[in-house]
Amino acid sequence: MSTNEQREFIPERDHGYGNSPKAFGEPVVVSDGPPQGCPNCGCKKVFQISVAVEAPPQLRVPEGFEAFCVYVGCPACPWASPAINSSRPKTTE
Fold first, then answer.
1. Which residues contact 13 (CB under 8 A, 6 or more apart)?
2. Total domain count for the chain?
3. Which ranges of the chain have pLDDT less than 50?
4. To 5 degrees, how large is the angle CA 28–CA 68–CA 37?
5. Which helix (H) or strand (E) element contains residue 6?
6. Which structural domain range is residue 58 located in?
7. Which residues contact 43 (CB under 8 A, 6 or more apart)?
8. What is the DSSP code string of 23-89?
């Protein structure tokens, strides 16, 4: 099963908001998440994650910027919090 098929296979990640923006970057751990841990499986360690995404229609992305989202995710199960979408200056690699 490909990564894209796996993402579509996890319906609990939409939180009732419909489809999430398509991620095209690699998810990056930004920091440790809240100390309460995972509400789904009880894992004590969750992480704040950032990933570049296609801009959702309601987000206006200025020239030279890219859309991204930040969310909290659990490494032990499919649970992830709703994402916050924003934009940031594009990085040159």
1. 7, 20, 78, 79, 80
2. 1
3. 1-10
4. 50
5. helix 3-9
6. 3-89
7. 37, 74, 75, 76, 77
8. B-S--EEEEE--TT--TTT--S--EEEEEEBPPPTT----TTEEEEEEEEE-SSSS-BPPPEEEEEE
The answer to whether the pTM exceeds 0.85 is no
pLDDT value, residue 12: 52
| Cα angle, residue 89 at apex, residues 4 and 58 outer, rounded to 5° | 60
How many CA atoms lie less than 13 Å away from 64 in the CB half-sphere? 1
**Which pair of structure tokens corresponds to residue 91?**
């990085």
Taking the C-alpha atoms of residue 2 and residue 50, their distance in angstroms, rounded to an integer, is: 21
Token pair belonging to 87: 């934009």
CB atoms within 10 A of CB 13: 19
